[in-house]
Amino acid sequence: MSRYFISITLPQAIQESVDQILPDEPQWRKVKREQLHLTLRFIGEAESSRIDQIQESLKEIDLPAFNLKLKGVGFFPDDGPVRVIWLGIENKSALMDLQQKVDEIVSDVMNSDREHSFVPHVTLARIKKGFLKSEKLLDSIPEENEQFEFKVRSFQLMESKKGSRGVDHHIVENYELKSGERNQ
Q: Which family does it belong to (predicted)?
């Protein structure tokens, strides 16, 4: 069965740059370059009628395009063995406005609240077997990296399916933000 989420897909040039942050290591599985994104809300499995409702309701979001800056590598969870390596987000105000509207729509249609607080990030890799942050392996991850800035002009309703070569994502619908830019 398909799983759904709402995200901001990174522009191709940003995907290519971000993909270079982490070296290839056997201990982690990097996210495929073309699948690098920022999840606004995970939906999971849902009846097609609910996905249709969400798909239509998202069209009502009326916000301007905005700039977003990616910077700083982090880890989930905060305590214990690392399971996810991620890239952080700066200048989040407009992003948080968009995420809040998306969250309200999904919560309303699904009759459920978000299970976790929203921590905006781009997942870079998932750890095959958890390891502690102090281990030498993490020394290969740059603490400071360049900043990647881009204009967010749209967001997407995505479908995720397990295939023979891992998980495949495809866009169900693309939602354009207004062409005027919001001041941060």
A: Belongs to the 2H phosphoesterase superfamily. ThpR family.
